[in-house]
Every structure is written in C-alpha cells, then in structure tokens.
Amino acid sequence: MAITLYDLCGRDERLRFSPYCWRVRMTLAHKGLEVTTVAWRFQEKEALAFADYDKVPVLTDGDNVVTDSFDIMRYLDRAYPDAPVVGEGMSLQRLMLFKQSVERSITPALFKIVALDLLAAIHPEDRDYFRKTREARFGATLEAVNDPEQGRHLLKQALVPVNAQLKESPFLDGDTPSGADYLLFGSMMWAYTVSTETLVDEKDPVAAWFKRMLEVHDSVAGKAVTVRDL
Amino acid sequence: MAITLYDLCGRDERLRFSPYCWRVRMTLAHKGLEVTTVAWRFQEKEALAFADYDKVPVLTDGDNVVTDSFDIMRYLDRAYPDAPVVGEGMSLQRLMLFKQSVERSITPALFKIVALDLLAAIHPEDRDYFRKTREARFGATLEAVNDPEQGRHLLKQALVPVNAQLKESPFLDGDTPSGADYLLFGSMMWAYTVSTETLVDEKDPVAAWFKRMLEVHDSVAGKAVTVRDL
Q1: CB under 8 Å to B220, separation ≥6 — which residues?
Q2: Residue ranges of the GST N-terminal domain (chains A, B) (predicted)?
C-alpha cells in the first residue's frame, strides 16, 4: 500500500524540521517502508480536514489515516511487526517514560537554543501565527525564551542519563537504533535542521551518536536539506 | 533453595536503608521469593570475602553468589523467569537508560536532602568511614553537600518525566510495578528510611505512587523500620 506523510515545511519547501515528523520518518526508514511526503505549512488546516486533525504528522497508509507521532509509531509496529520500534508491555512503558523526558526536559532546552533561528526558518507567512501560538503557550516572547547559553546548560543536564548510557551501548536501544533513539533524534534533528548553533559538546557521547544517526538507514536524515544548504 | 541477602544496616540493626538493597528486596518480593537478610555494616569487608566483593548487596542462592544490585536483578530474572522485572532487548536497554537517570540525577538530589540525616542514621563506628569516603567522592564536606531546599528543587526537575508518566499509568512499568518502579523506589526508600525531610510535594503524582509502593507485595517496604520508629 502507498504511504503518505504530511510533513511540516519551512521557508523553503525542502526544509523539513518537525521533531514529530522526524520520529515517523526514522520509523518508516527503520522498517524499510517507502513514503511520499507532502509538504505542509502551519496554517493549512483544511488540507488535514480529512484526518479530523489540525497538525502534522498525519500518515495515510492505503485507507488508514493515523494522527499523532507516537500513535503513528505504534500503528506502524502493528501493521509492519518486523523490527518493532516501540515494543509492548514494559518495553512500551519504559519508552513512554523516556518520551516524557524528551518532550518535557530535552525539547524545551533545545527550544531555548534555537527559538529565533526556528522563527527565521519558518515560512514568512507563518511567522505571525507561530509567534502568537508559542508566546501564548510559554507566556513569554520568543526573544525572552531564546537563550542559547542557558539552553545548552539545561540540555547538558537533561542529557546526563543519555550520555552515560551511550558509553555502554552505541545506540540507546542497543547495538542498533530503535524507538528511544528516534524520539531523541527527532528533537535534535529539529534543532539541527533550523540552526547552526552548537547543541552539545563535541566530546559528549551524544555528539558521536547524532552523527551515527545521520548515517543510519541509508542516511535518510543526513541527506535532508538544512539551513546550511539554503 | 535458600536465598540470603547481605543488607546494609545503620545505628539500629533493623534500620535497612541501602537503595541498592531495596531494589533487590522489592525484586524478591515481586517474584514471591523468601529471603533471609544478614545485617551488614560498611566496614565488615571480611564478611563478604567469600563473594570477592566489598559492598552490598550480595545475594546467595544455594551455591550461587551474585554481587551488584542490577546484576542480582538480572540473575533473578534468569533463575526465576516468571514475572520478569528487568526484561530483555529493548526493554532492558530502556531500563538501563532510566537507571542512569536514577543514579546520576535523582539519587544525588535525594542525597542533598538527607546527607546529614543519613550520617546520623549510620552506626557511630561507621560514621568516620562514611564521611571520609563520601567527602573524597564529592570533593566537599557532607555539611556543604547537605542542602535540602536545593535538593528538593533538583529532585523536582529530575522527576518531571516520572510525574508526567504517573499521570498516564499507576506505576512506571504499567498497571503493576516492575523493574523501573523498583529502581526509583530503592532510592526514595533510602531517603525515607533515614530522614523525615519532605522529599516531594504531596500533590505530585510521585507522592501517591510512593505510598502505593510501600503497600505492594504485602507491604514489604511499608513494614520496614525507619527513623520514625526509633
């Protein structure tokens, strides 16, 4: 069946930076599934009306329509059970715990590093929308949130367990990457795509891991267009 | 086969507070295994010579001698495979990642809350040894490390993913507790056993979880002697 992914794009249609879409892209690559991506911008709500949803990722697989990045990962595990990325039982529970860490500690720290670069990477017609919605969420201006030095400090703290674990195994999920790696990578790829700011110390294990992640699955992420290419 | 656990004790032989021993106690209870504990004090190295090890927990199970809390948990999963606590593959990897968080972020924050209470809970003859070894490890006096208010702030930060996850499921590992719960509980039980300091906000999900954990497995932890009883 043909798989389509509605994928957030920026000021250049090739610039794809959503952390949630990257989780799904990596999961599809992990399972060797072909995908056609549809570039989507923040305000194109009507394009997603068929899914009864208002943001990406939205995935269609034949007649199936699935929304929410983690639900899509779980759907792909059910529909294509070889090489599971999420798992079941304790494996799933422990991934959900790490997902909380990615979304509540790691991603907010990354946001502080790249907030203004992210704004600049967004399509000019979407910037007012982005600023308004995010500033309402944070209760602060993007300029006040943007603080790369403090962001790097918070990120380093949040990545203490990750750096320790990456001394024990090349990927978070073991000898090869899987769901835990894709959750973290999605957020780091988001920041890397829109910004040339330093995210982590070169000597931290997570820096070498990120380079490995750019190369896995035929460099699906490494080949992606970033602000460096524009 | 008879199982014996060498278990750290304090100024009262009934005061058992090692976070690493508590992980093992909970794992044994999880599997419905009877255990005889042997009270052990920090400097009784010769009592562990048979294990070629110098700290607890040490577990003997018939002729088997196993050291290191996590290795003991893995041993118990292999020897008594019903109701696994650690799991295998991605499940194991993700538990190892959470273990890093418990040992590198959560436990150090707890230590700042209870450092001086912990010293007072230790047997008088062991206090010099404890102070010397810990102060060398931290490069600071126990009095300088002890800062309950800062500790609670760091703990709250480190528990952000845990509190979020405990809104989704009653235990970290799902509907019933397992390895992830025992790792976190071991450290919180350690602090709770030696100190009456407030550890977490009563309204945080982790507070209700801790009470549930005191009650599981026939209240093996809830019945334990703490400084409140002495």
Answers
A1: B25, B26, B29
A2: 8-84
